[in-house]
Write a structure and sequence with these properties.
The chain is an alpha+beta fold and 495 residues long. The chain contains eleven helices and 17 strands. The chain has two domains: 336 residues, Cathepsin B, Chain A; 116 residues, Jelly Rolls.
């Protein structure tokens, strides 16, 4: 069983039962990946089955870092590192979308409850989960602001509920600290468009192209992390600098006796950082000439152990770290999500019944839609189609534009755009819509190596008269891959 467990752990995101505040770090788990508990790794494909998003001509800088980050937090003594990693990424994505940093503060407490209770939930009888599950819950159900349900650093114990003893397989409420208050269930929900696994060889490509982070789950090796529970010698200096090296054989052997996992958010890299390799006794490994052997190439990551211990001397800021690229390649799995579109108004005639403005009232049930044609029966919907079949210039900011001249009268209530674009690397594309001096971005460098873009976008922010020029622009931002704007459709509801 141990062999099988290790194979699963190294091939998929970990359901990391990890705690951290005050340098406490992960706590061990044994069987939450046991297939007898159900195939909880379903949907976490092997790394070698995922597409490689690197462009053939890609050249990355030796050091790069995404700066749209919320402050480092502490998970305290609870095993919820994957909740914190996922929440950090959600905050990163909303800041990237334009939300002020001070407002991008989402509730880990609520997400921990959602990941174990809402439709699609899992890991109901353990403190841990996976970043993929957590992000999928945000896509499907949304999360709430921290102010709606503030995080509690300690998990419930018998003083809160007699059944909340130590260990796993307790009632779900013990791991979520009960049920959410009305302030959370009735709060505005913030969702993500899509989540996807990322080939660990494509992490640079994603970060550099999208300027957003990636969640990674890892088998935890105590000496590599310089953790105080390591039975092998550790380095205080490396701990304070936040440096996590590739584990040596002895560290692997000892750590797997007390198996644990951890999840973090990768936000950049440093190809030039070099760190001396250590053996199981904590001594520097020497080459044949007696010189120290160096490990080179580290990811920059955001951790969830607060700012007073781990990584206090990291140049990005306290609580950040450097993580061996070789470590991630061998033991990590990566997942990310797309940047959301900040919406302040409901899309009233959305056939999927999505609550765009997060007030728990969708479409015609939302008071914002009281005068919308789809809800009143008044007004009308206008549909226009263009079929330019135009080649998209490769790596050219001019791009290709297609204009629809509208002569109909009416006041804009709702706008949808459907695009049909053939392209060999969707992540190259930036698509915008312009009307009467207002320009809105439909998609920007999203989708990695996926081919083609055939999608309908609900576009908010257009007001005033329907009549005039509506221009769709498609820009290819990188070399080699090419494509065609086949057609597009404009649908506008008017009052």
């Amino acid at each position: 069983m141990r062999t099988r467990l290790l194979a699963v752990l190294s091939a998929s995101l970990l359901a990391a039962a990890c705690s951290g505040g005050g340098g406490d770090g992960p706590t061990p788990y044994d069987d939450i990946h046991d297939p007898s508990n159900g195939d909880i790794n379903e949907g976490a494909p092997r790394n070698d089955t995922l597409p490689d998003d690197n462009k053939a001509d890609a050249v990355y800088p030796p050091r790069f870092e995404v700066r749209d980050q919320s402050p480092v937090k502490s998970q305290g003594s609870r095993g919820v590192c994957s909740i914190f990693a996922a929440t950090a990424l959600v905050e990163n994505l909303y800041i990237k979308a334009g939300m002020p940093v001070a407002e991008a503060d989402f509730s880990e407490q609520y997400l921990q409850w959602a990941a174990k209770n809402l439709p699609g939930a899992s890991f109901k009888n353990t403190s841990g989960s996976t970043s993929e599950l957590n992000l999928r819950m945000v896509v499907q159900h949304g999360t709430v602001k921290e102010s709606a349900w503030r995080y509690e650093s300690f998990q419930w114990n018998t003083s809160n509920d007699p059944e909340c003893t130590d260990g796993e397989n307790l009632p779900t409420r013990c791991y979520t600290n009960g049920a959410p208050p009305v302030s959370a269930t009735e709060a505005q929900k913030f969702k993500l468009p899509r989540t996807r696994f990322v080939n660990t060889n494509s992490i640079k490509a994603h970060i550099h192209t999208n300027k957003t982070g990636v969640n990674v789950g890892l088998t935890f090796f105590y000496q590599a992390w310089n953790h105080r529970k390591s039975v092998l010698p550790v380095s205080t200096d490396l701990w304070q600098r936040g440096i996590v090296t590739m584990p040596n054989g002895k560290d692997e052997e000892e750590s797997l006796k007390n198996r644990a996992g951890h999840a973090i958010q990768i936000v950049g890299w440093d190809d030039e950082l070099e760190v001396e390799m250590r053996d199981g006794e904590g001594k520097t490994v020497l080459d044949a000439q007696g010189k120290p052997r160096l490990e080179k190439g580290f990811w920059i990551f955001k951790n969830s152990w607060g700012t007073t211990g781990f990584g206090i001397d990291h140049p990005t800021g306290a609580g950040y770290g450097y993580l061996s690229m070789a470590y991630v390649k061998k033991y990590g799995s990566a997942v990310t999500a797309d940047v959301p579109v900040l919406r302040t108004a409901e899309v009233c005639d959305d056939p999927d019944g999505i609550d765009e403005d997060g007030d728990n009232r969708a479409n015609c049930d939302d008071s914002d839609c009281a005068t919308h044609p789809a809800c009143t029966g008044a007004g009308s919907t206008h549909t226009y189609t263009a079929t330019p079949a135009a080649a998209i210039p490769d790596n050219n900011t001019t791009g290709v534009s297609s204009t629809i001249e509208v002569g109909d009268a009416g006041t804009i209530a709702d706008v949808k755009v459907t695009v049909d674009i053939t392209h060999t690397f969707r992540g190259d594309l930036v698509v915008t819509l312009e009307h009467d001096g207002t320009t809105k971005t439909l998609i920007a460098n999203s989708g990695g190596s996926a081919k083609d873009l055939k999608q309908t976008f609900a576009v908010s922010g257009f007001t005033g008269a329907l009549s005039g020029r509506w221009t769709l622009k498609v820009v290819d931002t990188a070399r080699i891959d090419t494509g065609t704007l086949n057609s597009w459709q404009l649908e506008v509801a008017t009052n």
